[in-house]
Specification:
The complex is a heterodimer of chains A (about 70) and B (about 600). With about 70 residues, chain A is an alpha+beta fold. Chain A is about 10% helix and about 25% strand. Chain A is built from one helix and five strands. Chain A starts with a strand and ends in a 6-residue tail after the last strand. With about 600 residues, chain B is an alpha+beta fold. In chain B, about 40% of the residues lie in helices and about 15% in strands. Chain B has 25 helices and 19 strands. Chain B has a six-stranded mixed β-sheet with strand order 2-1-6-3-4-5, sandwiched between helices. The interface between A and B is medium-sized, with 21 and 44 residues.
Chain lengths: ~70, ~600
C-alpha cells in the first residue's frame, strides 16, 4: 500500500489521508490524477520525508506528503 | 525635496527628564537605511557595546525604516535596538502592528531612550509634543489592560508597553505593541523595565508619509502588491493558514524538534497544525499596517477574542514540550502576550526544564504542584504565568532563560540555545543551511536572520537539498544580507517570499531618492551585518560563540524521516567565514575597508 497524506487546501473535499494500492500507480503524477490535483498545484512533494518531483517512481510502503504553496517563519 | 524620512529623532533621558530633538544624519541614514541598520550604527558609535545592559548606561532605540508608514506593502515595521541582557550582544527585535507607522506619522524616525527614571514613567507622543508622565498606576499591569487604559486617555493612540515580565527584569521579557504584537527576542523588555519605562503611546494627526517620487513609489508598490497577490505563499498559504501551516511540513521532513530536541518527529503534530487551528479556533485573519498578506491569527480562546499563536509557539509549547493540546497552547501563548514574554524562549525554557525534570535535576518539590512532565498541558499554562510573575524560586530562575537554568543544574548541554538565546523550530541536523544561520546569527539562536528554510524546505526561490552542505554558506550570507535590508527598510520579511532585491531597490529609491542598484543594496545589507558583528566584538563576543549545541553535532536525530542525520556545521562554518571575508569569526581589515566600516 501507499499512504498519501494531504495538507492545507488539498484536504478540501479529500480528507487528511488515503491509502492506495501500490500495483495501480507507478508515479506520484498518477496519484495526483486520481486525486484530481494538478501537478502544477503541488509546491512540495515528499516521499518518505524527502523532496522529489511528481514524476518520481513510487514503491509499496512509501509515504507521500503533498503540500500546495505555503510558508511562514 | 521630500523623502520618506522625517529627519528627526527624539532623545529622551529618563534620569534628567530632558527631551531633545536631533536632526537625522541623512547620509548616515542612507548608508545604513534605518531600523535595524541605523539603530545598530547609533548604538555602536555611542559606545553602548561595553555597558551593563540593565544599567542606566544602556540605550533603548525604537527605530522605524524609511518605508515605515508609506503605502508600500507590509510597511508597518519598527525595530527595537539595544544591548541584550540575555547574552550581552546586539539585540534587534522587530515588530509589526501599527505603532511604528503612527510614530512615523507623528513626525519621528525614531526614539532613543537613555538613563533610568527613579519611578515608573510612561511617554506620550502626540505629533511634535512629547511628554514624560508618571505611571505608578500601571505598575505590574498586563499588556491588554495597559493598552485599553491608555486608549481611554488618548482614543486614537497606538500603545507600546512592557508587561509584568519586563518590570520583573525577566531576561525573556518582550516589548509588546497593539496588545499582541511583540518585539519578542533578546530580553528587550527587561531593558525597558530596567529604565522604569512602562509604555509609549503615540497619536498622530497626519495619516500618510511623503516620498521622494510619489509616482515611482506608486508603481513600485503596485508591482510588489501584484507579486504578493499572485505568489502561492503570500497570496494563499499564509492568508489561509498563517505561519502555523509549517507544523506539518517541518514535521514531514523530520526536523520538528520534539521533547527539547531529543527527537525530531512528533506523531501528533497535526493536532497542533495550522490546519487544525483554522478548523477549531480561527475567527479571522490579523493584519499589520499596510499588509496585503494577513498572516496573523485572531482566535477564540474560551469565548474571548485574542491574538493566536504563530508557528514558533505552536511548536515550542507543542511538540517541544510533548503537548498536542491546542487549547492549552493557545492559552499559554495568550499569557506570553499578557505578561510580555518571548513566545519562543519561554516555551523552550519550559522544555529544557522538562528535560531537567526527566533527568531528576528538578524535583517535585521545586514544581510546587505543577510537575514539569512531558505532555502536561497544565504545566505550559501555569509555568508561563509563573515565569511572568517571577515569585516561585524555580520560576525566577526559568525567567532568566534556559542557558542560566541549565547551567544552574550543571547541565548546560540541555539548553538548546546559541549565544544563550533559544533556537527556533527547525532542526539543523535535518536542514543543514539553517544551522549556519543559527550559529552565526549576531543576536543568538534565530531563524529570521537568514531564513534558509525557504530554499531548503519550501523550494523558494529554488529547491535545495536540505541534507547537503554545498553552497549553503553563500546562500546563508545572501539571505542574511537581504534580510538586514528588509529589516532596515521597515518592511516585513514575509514580503520576500514574493519580492526580491530588484523590488526592494525600486521601493527604497522612489521613497528616499537614493540611486541604489540591487547589488548596492545587498552591500548595504552586508555592511549592516558586519556592524552588528563589530558591536558584538566590542561587547566581548568570542569566536567560540558561533556554535551549535553539542546535541546537534554529536547526537544524530533519533526518530522520523531524518533519523541518523547530524549537523555538519564544522564543515560549513569555515566556508561561511570565507564568503563573509571574516577570520576567526570577525571581519578582516580588507572587509571593513570594502564596506566602508573602517572610518
Amino acid at each position: 500500500m501507499i499512504e498519501v497524506r494531504l495538507f492545507a487546501t488539498f484536504r478540501d473535499g479529500r480528507g487528511k489521508k488515503c491509502e492506495l494500492c501500490a500495483d495501480t500507480f507507478s508515479t506520484v503524477d498518477e496519484i495526483l490524477s486520481e486525486l484530481k490535483i494538478q501537478s502544477t498545484e503541488v509546491a512540495i512533494c515528499l516521499i518518505n520525508g524527502f523532496h522529489h518531483s511528481t514524476d518520481t517512481a513510487i514503491h509499496d510502503g512509501d509515504i507521500i506528503s503533498l503540500f500546495p504553496p505555503v510558508g511562514g517563519g | 525635496m521630500s523623502t520618506s524620512y522625517n529627519e528627526r529623532i527624539a532623545r529622551i533621558n529618563l534620569t534628567t527628564g530632558d527631551i531633545k530633538v536631533e536632526t537625522l544624519d541623512i547620509n548616515l541614514a542612507k548608508k545604513f537605511i534605518g531600523g535595524r541598520g541605523l539603530g545598530t550604527k547609533i548604538l555602536y558609535d555611542e559606545g553602548v557595546a561595553s555597558v551593563d545592559p540593565l544599567s542606566p548606561d544602556n540605550k533603548l532605540i525604537y527605530m522605524t525604516g524609511p518605508m515605515t508608514g508609506t503605502k508600500s506593502p507590509t510597511a508597518g515595521r519598527y525595530m527595537v535596538v539595544t544591548k541584550s541582557p540575555l547574552n550581552n550582544m546586539i539585540a534587534c527585535s522587530n515588530s509589526g502592528g501599527v505603532w511604528g507607522a503612527k510614530l512615523k506619522y507623528a513626525g519621528w524616525d525614531g526614539i532613543i531612550v537613555e538613563g533610568k527614571s527613579e519611578t515608573l514613567v510612561r511617554i506620550n507622543i502626540c505629533d511634535d509634543k512629547i511628554e514624560l508622565l508618571p505611571a505608578s498606576e500601571y505598575q505590574m499591569m498586563k499588556s491588554e489592560e495597559v493598552d485599553e487604559k491608555l486608549k481611554e486617555l488618548y482614543p486614537n493612540c497606538s500603545v507600546l508597553n512592557i508587561g509584568p515580565a519586563g518590570e520583573n527584569l525577566s531576561l525573556l521579557a518582550a516589548i509588546m505593541n497593539d496588545k499582541d504584537r511583540a518585539a519578542g527576542r533578546g530580553g528587550v523588555g527587561a531593558v525597558m523595565g530596567s529604565k522604569n519605562l512602562k509604555a509609549i503611546s503615540v497619536t498622530s494627526t497626519r495619516k500618510a508619509m511623503p516620498a521622494f517620487d510619489d509616482d515611482a513609489l506608486k508603481a513600485a508598490t503596485s508591482e510588489c502588491n501584484k507579486l504578493i497577490k499572485e505568489n502561492g505563499v503570500t497570496g494563499a498559504g499564509l492568508p489561509t493558514y498563517g505561519t502555523a501551516v509549517l507544523v506539518n511540513i517541518i514535521n514531514g521532513v523530520g526536523s520538528f524538534p520534539t521533547r527539547n530536541w531529543q527527537e525530531s518527529y512528533y506523531p501528533e503534530a497535526d493536532d497542533i497544525s495550522g490546519e487544525s487551528l483554522k478548523e477549531s479556533h480561527l475567527i479571522k485573519q490579523g493584519f499589520c499596517h499596510r499588509c496585503p498578506i494577513g498572516c496573523g491569527r485572531v482566535i477564540d480562546l474560551k469565548g474571548k477574542t485574542v491574538g493566536g499563536p504563530e508557528y514558533e509557539p505552536l511548536w515550542a509549547f507543542g511538540g517541544n514540550c510533548g503537548i498536542n493540546d491546542l487549547e492549552a497552547i493557545n492559552e499559554a501563548n495568550y499569557w506570553c502576550n499578557e505578561y510580555g514574554l518571548d513566545a519562543i524562549s519561554v516555551p523552550c525554557t519550559i522544555a529544557a526544564a522538562m528535560e531537567l525534570y526527566q533527568e531528576g535535576c528538578i524535583t517535585d518539590e521545586d514544581c510546587a504542584g505543577v510537575p514539569l512532565e512531558w505532555g502536561n498541558a497544565k504545566a505550559i499554562v501555569e509555568w508561563t504565568k509563573r515565569m511572568g510573575e517571577c515569585e516561585l524560586p524555580l520560576a525566577k530562575l526559568m525567567a532568566l532563560g534556559s542557558f542560566r537554568l541549565c547551567e544552574h543544574y550543571g547541565r548546560p548541554d540541555i539548553s538548546m540555545s546559541v549565544k544563550k538565546q533559544e533556537m527556533p523550530a527547525y532542526d539543523p541536523r535535518g536542514i543543514q543551511g539553517i544551522g549556519i544561520t543559527y550559529a552565526t546569527s549576531n543576536r543568538g539562536g534565530c531563524h529570521v536572520r537568514g531564513y534558509l528554510i525557504s530554499p531548503e524546505v519550501l523550494g523558494l526561490p529554488e529547491q535545495l537539498d536540505r541534507t547537503t552542505t554545498e553552497g549553503k554558506a553563500l546562500w546563508c550570507k545572501i539571505f542574511q544580507d537581504l534580510t538586514a535590508v528588509i529589516d532596515s527598510m521597515g518592511l516585513c520579511l514575509f514580503s520576500s517570499f514574493a519580492c526580491g532585491a530588484p523590488q526592494y531597490t525600486n521601493l527604497l529609491n522612489s521613497a528616499t531618492g537614493t540611486e541604489h542598484t540591487p547589488d548596492d543594496l545587498l552591500e548595504v545589507g552586508e555592511r549592516i551585518y558586519n556592524i552588528e558583528r563589530l558591536f558584538n566584538k566590542a561587547a566581548g563576543m568570542l569566536p567560540e560563540d558561533d556554535r551549535l549545541p553539542k546535541r546537534l553535532t554529536e547526537e544524530p536525530i533519533a526518530n522520523g524521516p531524518s533519523q541518523g542525520l547530524i549537523s555538519k556545521i564544522k564543515v560549513t562554518l569555515p566556508q561561511y567565514y570565507e564568503v563573509r571575508g571574516w577570520e576567526n569569526a570577525f571581519p578582516t581589515e580588507e572587509t571593513l575597508e570594502r564596506l566602508k566600516l573602517n572610518v
